Amino acid sequence: MQKLTKVFTLAFGQGLNIIVNLLFLPYMARVLDYQEYGTYGQVLLIVSFIAALLSFGLPQIIYVYLANADDSKRISVFNSCLYGSALIGLVGGILLISCSSLFSLWFNNEGLTILLQLYSLSLLFILPFNCINSYFIFLNKVKISAIIAVVTNILKVGFVITAIHVFHSVYIAIFGVLLSEIIQLTIGVIISRKSIKFKFDFILIKELLKKGFPLGLTGVLGAGILYVDSAMISSIEGIKPYAIYRNGAIEVPFISTLYASISAIVLPEVAKLFQEANFDRILDLKKKVVMNSMMLTYPVLIFLLFNSHNIIVTYLGEMYKESAIVFAVFNLTLLIRITNYSDILISANKSKVILKIYLLTFCINIMLNYLLIVSFGIVGAAISTVISLFVLAALQLVISLQLIKKRLTDLFDFKMLLLMISLCVVLALVLKWIFSSSGKYTFLFFGGIYFPIIYLILLRFDFFSMDIIKQLIPKFLFRKKG
């Protein structure tokens, strides 16, 4: 259960981050108008996409190189990734500053330019930290990674709230976000200082970039699949629909972080096992994580589908009630956020295959976004994202299983899954009928009855492992007395 422990440690830290962000979001939605809120979101959107573009797959490819290197060589790999990322971030930041006015024209938002120029500097800090974070995870320093993420995110939120509440300035808010990322990198450098050497291998950097380029391009396409909907809404519909869409395209704390945590923890292990051709162990590892993730995630998804309107109106206010349908549709992505679909392909050095899959999915996504946004507005964008992510996952999963000579039925227990979903839906329908005439806060009572019943049933009949619960509840509760 060591790998599951790491998954849920990292997921718990990331879940705390999302809780902080979810507490922060209603504040921003209420104190900023559509123009200010939309502009703030557009700045973060653009830089996130550019960061994915400039990562060149280094935070992922480093796992493969570290797994195949001895201790002395690992230091060289780490430093090459670190300095290479810093240089790329510096060049990327300068280029983004010079191109910021073009983004303002594309998004038809004059207020975007100055904010984007300021936040462009964050690339110099985001990219190197991503390599440091990957290094921490490879060395099993998962708790350190989680703590850094939580602490710096709390600082970011504090800086932004101070900027808005005291100075009434979105410009200072963006500076606060930048400052939090400077602090994040500084903490990472201090903790990893013994591994940082003031020399680097140009040949190794070149090799890392060459090997990582297909993954980097894949990252760009992956970011495009996630962000192109928001960009196209901004361009086609305008900044107000974008603000409404952005507030609906959110996921729940902890549950939504399982996917990223699984990806970060399982990839290094799969890379090692693949080198040993231990395909049965790979299947066992992935099945254990997949099935337990489903049992935790799917009941939450069904709850959200039955209560999306009341949740959004209570959370963000009547101003964003149109975000509710986007929220319901967007959270269907939780159906597939249960495993890393690229880990086996990366381990098998099939980066070009991954790239082709992402390119195909990206093209499908652009086409669907245009057709569905024109026809259905912001809801069409959410539908497009869900369909595209399902296509992306299905293609990678089929090829991955072929590589390890396994079948879909080897990975999923469909009988158990169908039974669990049926239980959740039946209980949700009964509770929906009971609370049908009540007010908007009934989702609290709904959840107070629904979740204890469902998870007690799943635990009682061994649908998922009790060891997972022990990772989420303080350990002293499980100590034996006497």
From TrEMBL:
Coiled coil: none annotated. It is found in: Cell membrane. Its main location: membrane. InterPro entries: Poly_Biosynth_Transport (IPR050833), Polysacc_synth (IPR002797). Pfam families: Polysacc_synt (PF01943). The keyword Cell membrane applies. Keywords: Cell membrane, Membrane, Transmembrane, Transmembrane helix. The chain crosses the membrane at residues 7-28, 40-66, 113-132, 144-164, 170-191, 212-234, 254-274, 295-317, 323-341, 353-372, 378-404, 416-435, 441-461. GO terms for cellular component: plasma membrane. It is a multi-pass membrane protein. This is Oligosaccharide flippase family protein. The lineage of its organism: Bacteria, Pseudomonadati, Bacteroidota, Flavobacteriia, Flavobacteriales.
